[in-house]
């Protein structure tokens, strides 16, 4: 009984981890830095002009001083 309980627990933790990772937005391409006054709205508009579904400013690499404007396609 203890072995079965352990396997079920491991299985449920694995499923939960996978479902959380799927929800994280994956960017298809970062097109440049977002300036302080730039904001998500301008980044979103620039990504839409480049035929992406959307975009937002985000720190993709650790230690960056300015966030990148990263575009994405909706996978749905």
Would you mind describing this structure in some detail?
This protein is of the alpha+beta class and 76 residues long. It is built from 2 helices and 3 strands. The chain has helices at residues 2-23, 39-49, and strands spanning 29-33, 54-58, 68-72. A 3-stranded antiparallel β-sheet has the order 1-3-2, with helices on one face. The longest helix is centred in the N-terminal third of the chain and has 22 residues, at 2-23. It starts with a helix and ends with a strand.
Question: Keywords, please?
Answer:
alpha+beta
Write the layout of secondary structure elements.
Elements: H1 2-23, E1 29-33, H2 39-49, E2 54-58, E3 68-72
Antiparallel strand pairs: 1-3, 2-3
Structure at a glance:
This protein is of the alpha+beta class and 76 residues long.
- Total strand segments: 3
Largest sheet: 3 strands, antiparallel
Instruction: Give the averaged pLDDT, no decimals.
Output: 77
- In percent terms, what proportion of residues is strand? 15-25%
Tally the helices: what do you get? 2
Low-pLDDT residue spans: none
Biggest β-sheet: strands ordered side by side in the sheet? 1-3-2
Alpha-carbon distance between the two ends:
40 Å
SSE string: HEHEE
